[in-house]
Structures are given as structure tokens and as C-alpha cells.
Amino acid sequence: xxxxxxxxxxxxxxxxxxxxxxxxxxxxxxxxxxxxxxxxxxxxxxxxxxxxxxxxxxxxxxxxxxxxxxxxxxxxxxxxxxxxxxxxxxxxxxxxxxxxxxxxxxxxxxxxxxxxxxxxxxxxxxxxxxxxxxxxxxxxxxxxxxxxxxxxxxxxxxxxxxxxxxxxxxxxxxxxxxxxxxxxxxxxxxxxxxxxxxxxxxxxxxxxxxxxxxxxxxxxxxxxxxxxxxxxxxxxxxxxxxxxxxxx
Length: 248
Prior knowledge:
Radius of gyration: 28 Å
Number of helices: 10
Strand content: under 5%
Distance between the termini: 96 Å
Number of strands: 0
Helix content: over 70%
Shape: flat
Largest sheet: none
Order of helices and strands: HHHHHHHHHH
């Protein structure tokens, strides 16, 4: 039985990636198959991206999540998801990001840099102590999108090109395993059993200190206001008493 360092799973990204890869059987051969599929996938990228965003557009809850950070793009003032169209700048931008993701997947060397990028893809959809962004997509939508993306890639690979059937099946299987690993790199920012990194612990501590400072300032403000009101009330009462005593 292989011994796994549980804490390291949450603090060492490469270690986590390799553990999940071994568990699902994502081997060097699978990585090579994905890399070798680049010529075929490159032609499919536009269709895959369009299919994914058509699916996202089918549901108001997923389409609304894309409108969260529209203010980062010039020319947007409305925050209503119905004002966002397929031709909107924010959607064009996001579709470009997905296309770059798919192309990078099949053209990059499988090393720590690619693993860090795949992790960033998950991280960027969340709002965590070390990342400030208007984008904070609920995990249920991320998981659903990855499931659909995986299915779209598999379906198109099964009908694209003139491949040997055994090679096609092996490549499809490699992609299926990969998307489960990508899903884990989303989930690690949502699940409660995750151990925070040292940077995140520092960030959380700072957040707590800032909240405590806000509470103290609020209490001080309320105390000052109460004191001022009390003083004002005392002056009014005192004036009234003086008028009665001295018949002013």
C-alpha cells in the first residue's frame, strides 16, 4: 500500500496532480496522446467553444455568472445578464480565454508550469483570501460546465479525422481522465477539507483583523454618537429646568 501525505495533497500542487493522475490512471502515454491530438483539436476549437457558450446561455443562472465582472470591460454600465449577448465584449473575451486553454492543453509540455496554469483556471473562478475578483462562480456550475466540455470534446473527437479506431478510443479515454483531474483543480478551492497555504492563512488573519477593526470603529462611533446625544439631551433638560426655576 502506497503511503500518501494528506497535508501535502493540499499544500503541494505537483504532488496533488500526480496523486490524482495515478488514481484515475492518467499516464505519460495519455499525456502524449493529448499532445499528439493537437492537429485535430486545433480545427475543433471554434466549434467546441461555441457549443460550450451556447450551453451556458441556455440557463439564466450560468449566464448571470458571466456578467459578474463586466465592469472590467469598457462600455458596460448595466449589470443585468439579459443585457449580455454572444457579441458582448465580456463574452468574446471569455470565449477567447477558453480557446487559448484548449490550445495550450495540446501544445504545452506537461510540467509544473502547465499544472500551475491548470490550477489557475480553477482558482480564477473563485473568490478566495488570496484572490480578489468580481468573478465568483458557484462550484455546481463549474462542474456542470466541465462535464459538458468533456462531452463536447469527446463527441467531436469521435467523428473528426481519419484515425485508427484504437488510437481514437485511447485518445478519447485520455481526455476523459484529464477532465476529471481538471475538475479536482476546481474543487480544491471549494471543498471544506482543504488545508490553507501559509499565504492564505496570513490573508485570512489579515481579513479577520480588518473585520475586528471595523467592528471596533463602529462601536466607537456608536459610543461617540450616544455620548453626544446624551450631552445634547442634558443641555436641553438643563435649559428647561433653568427656565422653570428662574421663570425665564
